[in-house]
Write a structure and sequence with these properties.
Chain lengths: 191, 173
């Protein structure tokens, strides 16, 4: 593969780590697919929109369980939601600390929790719209709309962050979410 | 070189299959639970047998999901461990090869050819990849053998095999 074409006559010095298990990857891409379906393709008032929304909610639910009992880098313990370390990470970006985080980096971790929370919020407000009790209440629908706008903003930031971090650290992150392996350049520290 | 050992690919496929089943089965379980919930809320034709069956199905599915999750976690951790071992061995092998090549004072192109030889690439292919004549490659391999004090490809390889298979007390490389 590509690693073999480096210096050292093909004796690779790059390390690669099996980080994302297949369930994490399946959940990631099916959630992305569900969001694209509901956000851009399906009719907002249709039955399918509702079902895909519940599926997205379910997917996040499964991920939350997996965050407790799952594989090492998938567990919440590997990427705790910590604004302080996120801030420190921000400083590290401004400096030239290129330490690699095998799980999500602290800033990415915040984004991950944010996206899950937003999807849950969308699911709940979406469900409320269909109930007798909240039927016809404008504010529920408005909340749903606002949350969707926030989700779009988040996804743009998420994708931007992924490419920025991939460029900064030299670890191809999209590839890592496809085959599960983070390929770390030889000279990088690992956390 | 790019071929992965067969069992690994098999394990990866197995892990992916388990993950897909977990996802589908968990969603199905949620569907049943949701259905019971909505039936109860709606209050229409409360069919006890129907709801009970649905609940049992949901419980069974959930138990299956939990078991598969543990199975997947163990499988993935075993795979990762094997991976670490393999990479450590690879790193050690790379160090060993580089040390010998340094000792023999191979030139950069000789190093490249020596590595191809170790990988089992024949002269014709090496010549093709390097864009040189086969006779050049033959001459260069002859120089490599001379520097390594061996007579053939097989012997060159055995220098490293010997090092890997020898016991601890043979001393430093």
């Amino acid at each position: 593969m590509r690693e073999d074409k480096n210096s050292d006559c093909g004796l690779s010095r790059n390390r690669s780590f099996a980080v994302w298990d297949p369930l994490v990857r399946l959940i990631h891409w099916s959630l992305a697919f569900a969001i694209v379906l509901n956000g851009a393709i399906l009719d907002d008032d249709g039955k399918w929109h509702e079902y895909v929304g519940y599926v997205a909610l379910g997917i996040v639910g499964i991920r939350l369980v997996w965050g407790i009992i799952g594989t090492r880098y998938a567990r919440f313990g590997s990427f705790p939601p910590n604004p302080f370390s996120a801030f420190r990470h921000f400083q590290a970006i401004s400096g030239d600390d290129k330490t690699i985080h095998l799980s999500h980096n602290p800033l990415g971790a915040l984004m991950v929790y944010n996206i899950w929370a937003t999807v849950i919020f969308l699911g709940v407000t979406g469900y409320m719209m269909g109930t007798v009790r909240f039927y016809g209440f404008e504010w529920v629908e408005e909340l749903h709309e606002v949350a969707f706008g926030w989700l779009i903003v988040s996804i743009v930031l998420h994708v931007g962050g992924v490419f920025f971090d991939g460029w900064r650290t030299g670890v191809p992150l999209v590839k890592a979410m496809i085959d599960g392996r983070k390929r770390v350049p030889a000279d990088r520290q690992i956390k | 070189m790019n071929k992965r050992p067969f069992p690994k690919g098999k394990r990866e496929r197995r892990a992916l299959t388990i993950a897909a089943i977990i996802l589908l089965q968990a969603l199905t379980a949620m569907f049943f639970v949701g259905d019971v919930f909505f039936d109860l809320r709606a209050g229409n034709d409360l069919d006890v047998i129907h709801s009970t069956l649905e609940l049992i199905a949901a419980l069974a599915l959930t138990a299956g999901v939990a078991l598969l999750m543990f199975e997947l976690r163990d499988l993935f951790h075993r795979m990762a461990e094997m991976d670490v071992g393999l990479q450590a061995a690879r790193g050690g092998m790379a160090d060993l090869i580089n040390t010998f090549f340094d000792d023999w004072q191979l030139t950069p192109s000789e190093r490249e050819i020596a590595l191809f030889i170790l990988k089992g690439v024949d002269n014709e292919t090496i010549a093709g990849m390097r864009g040189t004549a086969q006779s050049t490659v033959r001459a260069q391999s002859a120089r490599i053998y001379a520097k390594a004090k061996v007579d053939s490809r097989a012997q060159l390889l055995s220098v490293f095999m010997e090092e890997l298979l020898s016991s601890e007390d043979t001393g430093a490389v």
